[in-house]
Design brief:
Length: 111
Amino acid sequence: MLAASTAAKARLPALQQAFNAGLRTGEYIMVKAPFAAPDNGREWMWVEVTKWDDKEITGLLNNEPANIPTLHSGQIVKVKAADVFDYIRYDGKGNEEGNESGKLMAKQRPD
């Protein structure tokens, strides 16, 4: 899982550059980042990027949190760029790139 995250993080500078240059119609990028839970744990969730600078990513929370009552899907959130674990880039035509952590988890699930 860490190898998948390392590979995803290596792509982030190019994704940031593409995002800030302007994506095509229908194209968007989501990043997976941790959010602090009240029980001192973390909940990993997807954020659709709306703004991206070198240290911080702003976007719309794409999950309904299970353990964080102060957050909800669709809420504007900020995450540290350094905390990003994975990404998905949708091309607007039904194709996607990234989500290596999701692919690994799917392989580990019993049928």
